[in-house]
Amino acid sequence: MINRRSSINIDYLLIIATVALILIGILFIYSSAINSEGKLTSNEYIRQIIWAVIGAAMMIAVSLVKYDMLRDFSPIIYGFFFFLLGFTLFRGAVVNGARSWLGIGPFGIQPSEFMKLGIILLLAYYLDRAGERDIGGVRVFFVSFLIIIPPMALVLLQPDFGTAMVYMPIALFMLYAAGARPLYLIFIIAVIFFTGIFTVLPEWERMIYEGSIEIFAIFNEPVYFALISGGLLLSLVISLVGLFGLKKEYFFFIAMGFAILLISFVLAPGARWFLRDHQMMRLIVFLDPYVDPRGAGWNIIQSLTAVGSGGFSGMGFLQGTQSHYQYLPQQSTDFIFSILSEEWGFLGGVLISGLYGGIILRGVIIAHQARTRFGAFIAVGVISMLFFHFIVNVGMAIGLMPITGIPLMFLSYGGSSLWTALLGMGLLMSVSHHRYTY
User: Fold this and answer.
1) Is residue 219 situated within a structural domain?
2) Which of 12, 86, 194, 357 could lock onto 264 through a cystine, CB 3.0 to 4.6 A?
3) How many CA atoms lie within 13 A of 134 on its CB side?
4) Any transmembrane segments, and where (predicted)?
């Protein structure tokens, strides 16, 4: 039975913004294929059009399905994509150094992209079942991370650090929307931040500072490392004794601080061991791209050059130099925003930001108006995915984020990324469409 609204409930803002972003993406994928002689060197834009048409059909189909029907299938969907991730790790094709593709001949998919939707659905299912009363507990928080850690591990083993890092903010945003304690979220974010700092510092000393800083010996000398770890552990124990013995609340925050430092300090050597040389170099050149200007720093330097040369209104469509002289590697995928900024300038960046902002704002409203908690969590998961992709990719193009290989959804070349974004939009439209359906 339908209440208050017609069964035909089209979300025009989402459709217009989505179509506009896809069309702009196709234009600049085409532009990226034009060389300095004005000749077309690739048919990527044709493939993108085909993927866009198929993806649009999938988006419409998903939007018409009542999202509540997916609730009980969420574990199966998650399990299916998880199986594909495991299978890819052993039998997948290697592209750009990562074994992350499944396919036949030139046709392939990237299961790690679709796994984002699997995580969104299963986490929405679990948080809905947990209920409002238990959502602030440690158990719900712990189980939620058990949902994202296994697929993260498989993607990291491919290795594809960029895609794996998207899973974490999806979970954090969804947990926050569900009502998880902010302190738990702050704890996770702080551990990630300090682990990154402790991981990069020794390499920064060696490659950028090019000297020796005595205190940095704690990262390299086993004796000092053991002493610092032991000191942090002892401080944590004393803080916990004060918390439970004296019942003073400030000991909780002291214990939390020592726990963050201890976990981060211990994880950092493992991160340095796990990260490959080119991944570590991406972090180093983020701090100073001129450490390796013709190697790892080349992408950032050329991207900044492209964005800066665009000025306020750009050089004009098909008039850019960085892309047409092929200075930017992966220019139709990772650095599509750089090409757009060069040819359409600051105004083009504002246009893209406005379209993304419209989708995200509309998504927040849909989440707020959703008929069920399950639907609200799906909406939050989808807009979190899109928001993080936008922030990291654009930040990467303008030098505010390290290069991670995260595409700009809707615009970057690639069928798996585009289909994931469009399926996510289908879920968002389904939540919007069925908010009056009983």
Assistant:
1) yes
2) 194
3) 12
4) 12-33, 45-65, 77-95, 107-126, 138-157, 183-202, 223-244, 250-275, 344-365, 377-398, 410-431
Q: Which of 186, 189, 64, 168 is nearest to 123 (CA)?
A: 168
**φ/ψ of residue 104, rounded to 5:** -125, 120
pLDDT at residue 331 is higher than 90: no
Q: Which residues, other chains included, contact 437 with Cβ-Cβ below 8 Å and sequence gap of 6+?
A: 2, 3, 7, 66, 371
d(CA 425, CA 343): 28
Query: Of 276, 272, 277, which Cα lies nearest the Cα of 201?
Result: 272
Q: Which domain holds residue 288?
A: 12-433
Q: Could you give the CA distance from residue 30 to residue 35 in angstroms, rounded to a whole number?
A: 11
Domain count, the chain: 1
Tokens of 5: 């609204």
Render 199-229 in DSSP notation, one character per residue: HHHHHHIIIII-S--GGGHHHH-HHHHHHHH
pTM of the entire predicted model: 0.88
**Percent of residues, the chain, with pLDDT higher than 90:** 40
Give the count of beta carbons closer than 10 Å to the beta carbon of residue 112: 28
**Residues 21 and 28 sit within 8 Å (Cβ to Cβ):** no
Asked if residues 306 and 189 have their Cβ atoms less than 8 Å apart, the reply is no
Does 140 fall in a domain?
yes
Alpha carbons 309 and 301: distance in angstroms, whole number: 12
| Dihedral, CA of residue 199, residue 278, residue 92 and residue 391, to nearest 10 | 70
Domain-located, residue 184: yes
Distance CA 62, CA 73 (A): 14
Number of H helices, E strands in the chain: 15, 3
pLDDT band at 7; cut points 50, 70, 90: very low
- What digits encode the pLDDT tens for the residues 346-394? 999 999 999 999 999 999 999 998 888 999 999 999 999 999 999 999 9
| pLDDT (average), residues 84-108 | 75
Nearest alpha carbon to residue 377 among 136, 117, 121: 121
Residue 335 inside a domain? The answer is yes
Backbone angles phi, psi at 181, to 5 degrees: -65, 125
- pLDDT of 6: 44
Token pair belonging to 294: 């013709």
42 burial (CB, 10 Å; 0-12 / 13-18 / 19+) is middle
Which residue is listed with tokens 């979300």?
11
DSSP state letters, 119-131: HHHHHHHHHHHHH
